[in-house]
Amino acid sequence: MGSLHANDIIDTTGCLQHPLDAEEFRLHAHKLVDFIADYYKNVAKYPVRSQVEPGYLRKLLPETAPNQPESIEDILSDVRSCIIPGLTHWMSPNYYAYFPSSGSTAAFLGEMLSTGFNVVGFNWMSSPAATELESVVMDWLAKLLCLPSEFLFSGGGGGVLQGTTCEAILCTLAAARDRALSRGCDISQLVVYGSDQTHCALQKAAQIAGIPYSNFRTIKTTVADAFALTANSLSLAIDSDISAGLIPLYLCATIGTTSSTAVDRLPELAQLTSQHNIWLHVDAAYAGAACICPEFRHFIDGVELADSFSFNAHKWFFNNLDCCCLWVKSPTALIKSLSTNPEYLKNKATESKQVVDYKDWQIALSRRFRSLKMWMVLRGYGTANLRQFLRGHVRMAKVFEGLVRLDRRFEVVVPRYFSTVCFRVRTGGDEAEENEMNRRILESVNAEGKIYMTHAVIGGVYVMRFAAGGTLTEERHVREAWVVIKEQVDKLMPNV
Ligand SMILES: *Cc1c(COP(=O)(O)O)cnc(C)c1O
Question: Which UniProt keywords apply (predicted)?
């Protein structure tokens, strides 16, 4: 432990002394880069899911912050001994939990630039390049995704980089709400729709936006529809709300749900929402990235009729956290809801109305220069290679799916569309027993530390989720993961 006491003689060599000294920065940043490069080299050696107990860290660290500077060596040594054991290694090639967090060197370098410049681009004037680069890369991305031109700046729409999907949903819901309120609706009449597979981000957004809980609809999906939301079931809900005197406001349709990567029936849902003037948001947090490949683009067919579309580039598009890409057809609707105009931010550029002031497109005022990261990723790899990376992950998931299908003890529970496989073992017992057995298998796989997966319950069925897509994952890791899973099944179900 590197803590110093008041009586120690302070040797400040190796310590940080001037908060922005260029040479000090050079020296220590090089050490940090080496440290992180070594981490990437060794990350496969750690247990993927952290094995510490709650409260472990407080026991290891001093009660109070140090009064005197400590050396970077001492701090890094504590990172090694105290922090790394408490990490779940999202960058491990053996990480298959939740959805991946696909970091990359290019994104890392972009983050370095962004952190280095440390500009706060709330409006155009506060750093013109931050705003303009963001608008450019959002148009680039929109073209890669073949979004309709109405989502591009040239077509009257536009894109913004936010932190998370939760924020994107909240901002678009606020815009939809205020549009309705300005037409004379009462907030107690407004209804928000999703399915029972929609991410809980929608519920949180509805709560924050003041939508009465009794007006929040989670429409039931079925195994027969592969857990997709259909126009039929949405239509029933809309009709019953209208006859009760309520006003349908907002639908969040999901392409690639979090539990099972189900794909809501966007083309037919979009018809319905445009008929009823419902704001349609398409949440493709995970699967949106794949849609830059022509063979996957059909999954977002229908987005032409949506009001907004978002995906998380930090999930499966090689951008380190955080980076949610959001496009809207009507920036005006967003801005009406989110803009403020205090005296201390007034400037000529804003008054000229020739510029984007991104503070009016998001919750917070201050914002990071995130587009440097996305620009680095797009330029550093090129779109041809980005497509190949994504295809590689889908191929790995197909390999895994094939292995599952070959073993008669297992079943693939829902269709695999992208790089995530939902599967389980069959015990021949009742549902409760099967669920319990799968839960035990997953826990013993994860406790062993060689790989890490998480679970979902879909239509009452407990499934293990194998989410490929880690940047360092190769096919050999996927094959090894299958061996690890089978070994635990052999152990826990010896007689099957
Ligand atoms: C991960 C996920 C979210 C939440 O994303 P955040 O960026 O953490 O807010 C929302 N929707 C879907 C479909 C997701 O997979």
Answer: Alkaloid metabolism, Decarboxylase, Lyase, Pyridoxal phosphate, Repeat
State the residue for tokens 């907002």. Answer: 250
Reference 145, options 311, 306, 286, 321; nearest CA is: 311
Domain 107-378: give its CATH code: 3.40.640.10
Residue 284 Cα to ligand 1 middle (Å): 8
How far, in Å, from the CA of 347 to the mean position of ligand 1? 36
Please state the atom number of ligand 1 nearest to the C-alpha of residue 256. 13
Pocket of ligand 1, beta carbon within 6 A: 99, 164-166, 199, 201, 254, 257-258, 283, 285-286, 312, 324
> Considering only the top CATH level, what class is 6-85?
mainly alpha
What the block records as the tokens of 353 is: 């109305």
User: How does pLDDT run across 175-200, given as a tens digit for each residue?
Assistant: 999 999 999 999 999 999 999 999 99
Take residue 229 and report the two structure tokens written for it: 């939301």
Fold of 383-492: Aspartate Aminotransferase, domain 1 (3.90.1150)
Domain boundary assignment for the chain: 6-85, 107-378, 383-492
Q: How far apart are CA 35 and CA 29, in angstroms?
A: 10
Question: What CA–CA distance (Å, rounded) separates 262 from 319?
Answer: 24
